[in-house]
Amino acid sequence: MFCSSHIFLLLTVIGLTSGAANNSYQNCLQIAARFATTVTNGPVADIRMTNGFKVTCPQIGNNSCPMPMTNGVCVFQQKLCVTCINGSTVRIRVQSNGLPRRCMIVFPTQKLAELNIDFEVNFNPDVSVNSPNQSPTTTAAVSALLCNVTNQGSVPATSAYNRSQISTPQDALAGVAVDGVEILNANSANLVDPFYPPAGYSPEGADQCISHPAPTSGEYHYHVASGCMLNPPAGNISGCGPDIGCLNSVANYSLKMFSSYKNLTVIGIAKDGHVIYGPYNSTGQQVTSGFDVCNGMFYDSIGNYAYFATTTYPYITGCFGPANYPNAKPNCTTNPAQSYTKSIYAASMSTSIGTTLNVSSSIISFITFFIIFTYMIIIN
Ligand SMILES: *[C@@H]1O[C@H](CO)[C@@H](O)[C@H](O)[C@H]1NC(C)=O
Ligand SMILES: *[C@@H]1O[C@H](CO)[C@@H](O)[C@H](O)[C@H]1NC(C)=O
Ligand SMILES: *[C@@H]1O[C@H](CO)[C@@H](O)[C@H](O)[C@H]1NC(C)=O
Ligand SMILES: *[C@@H]1O[C@H](CO)[C@@H](O)[C@H](O)[C@H]1NC(C)=O
Ligand SMILES: *[C@@H]1O[C@H](CO)[C@@H](O)[C@H](O)[C@H]1NC(C)=O
Ligand SMILES: *[C@@H]1O[C@H](CO)[C@@H](O)[C@H](O)[C@H]1NC(C)=O
Ligand SMILES: *[C@@H]1O[C@H](CO)[C@@H](O)[C@H](O)[C@H]1NC(C)=O
Ligand SMILES: *[C@@H]1O[C@H](CO)[C@@H](O)[C@H](O)[C@H]1NC(C)=O
Ligand SMILES: *[C@@H]1O[C@H](CO)[C@@H](O)[C@H](O)[C@H]1NC(C)=O
Ligand SMILES: *[C@@H]1O[C@H](CO)[C@@H](O)[C@H](O)[C@H]1NC(C)=O
């Protein structure tokens, strides 16, 4: 006889092997609601043409202000629209002008830019630990993959990413934070960790929100997680200096900014449609292991895969996963992960046949049905 616990076990077997992630329309709306949006009935034709959230910022001079000065003061608008598109595959569209809901520090000679970020991608697509998108094994291969500022210019086909024709080029874009600010690839334009570079390179500066504008394009961006994504400071902001414990310790400072968010906290969405969480998991512990070489992690038993903020390079996401768990480390940082290890969920979903022979999902499905079939014979 079939009783409910048998059905539950059966569903567990199916769930573990087919990896159904939380990617319903409702799931998408829950994530979209975490963003500091300024437009409700999206998508819009051009985010720059909308009315946003006004930020008055006397510390930004007239040469740097991204919008015309108002009575001699820099006033700009943060504009963000995140739309879930229902269908058999749920998609998410992210439209942002890239400006934050707070002041910024910018060199007087630098001009901040209003951007037109506009892309659409499958929301939290189903992926499998047994079908990695990347699998470098040597130091050279890990370095070639991670230490490439445009490696996230190509998004896995399963994400079906596309961007608006009139949008700002997005080759170095890794994702968008919940405040609408760009999360750029982990590397600087010099192809090294901006804050913990190897010998021969100087660390880059940043403001108290651990963000800075790109020198020529004026694109304001993050490379590491910042509490300002969730909780923008009011008024003038300061630099990433020793007074706030930021200088020379950017990674630890980043973690400290999440002391009031010791839970699973959405901080953004990656360009491949996977969610980006802060440094803590759902049981309130800091994520220090369980992630792959891209910084992605299978973090629950139903197969959800997401990027987590870490205090080690690549800090948010270094490539689009899922990926492997090599012994080698990248050469473009002095602050690499100690090791890459499978989470307990990734380990339980791994088929040893799958990883060694790379068996196709149809064979995995066959095995699933075989297990279910055997199970039905046993319980009857
Ligand atoms: C995913 O969905 C399951 C129910 O199917 C729910 O229990 C779980 O909390 C969801 N996880 C997230 C991260 O939304
Ligand atoms: C903010 O910075 C501007 C320009 O440096 C300065 O004039 C102003 O007094 C500052 N405001 C506060 C509240 O410190
Ligand atoms: C900026 O302000 C200075 C004086 O405060 C003025 O000389 C200059 O023309 C202004 N530049 C622009 C682009 O408005
Ligand atoms: C979303 O689409 C699915 C499948 O196409 C459908 O079953 C569901 O009712 C839709 N949900 C809403 C809220 O429209
Ligand atoms: C890392 O190694 C690659 C060769 O594998 C080399 O081309 C690159 O310059 C190295 N990068 C640094 C920062 O040493
Ligand atoms: C960096 O990654 C991009 C996108 O995958 C690729 O086209 C390019 O060849 C890579 N660059 C190097 C130096 O490997
Ligand atoms: C992506 O492609 C779809 C289908 O062609 C289109 O409806 C959508 O507008 C495109 N998204 C963007 C951001 O251009
Ligand atoms: C973080 O702080 C600890 C001491 O609390 C130190 O050992 C470690 O090197 C720091 N890490 C970084 C990346 O700055
Ligand atoms: C996480 O913690 C923050 C701050 O304490 C709180 O606002 C938020 O609701 C919590 N989120 C969850 C999912 O518990
Ligand atoms: C959270 O992380 C801790 C430490 O890595 C781990 O022991 C715990 O199982 C994780 N919680 C969940 C729900 O995965």
UniProtKB/TrEMBL annotation:
UniProt keyword annotations, A-Z: Membrane, Signal, Transmembrane, Transmembrane helix
Keyword Transmembrane helix: yes
Residue ranges of coiled coil: none
Protein name: YHYH domain-containing protein
Domain called YHYH: residue spans: 155-282
Transmembrane segments: 359-378
Signal peptide: 1-19
Pfam families per UniProt: YHYH
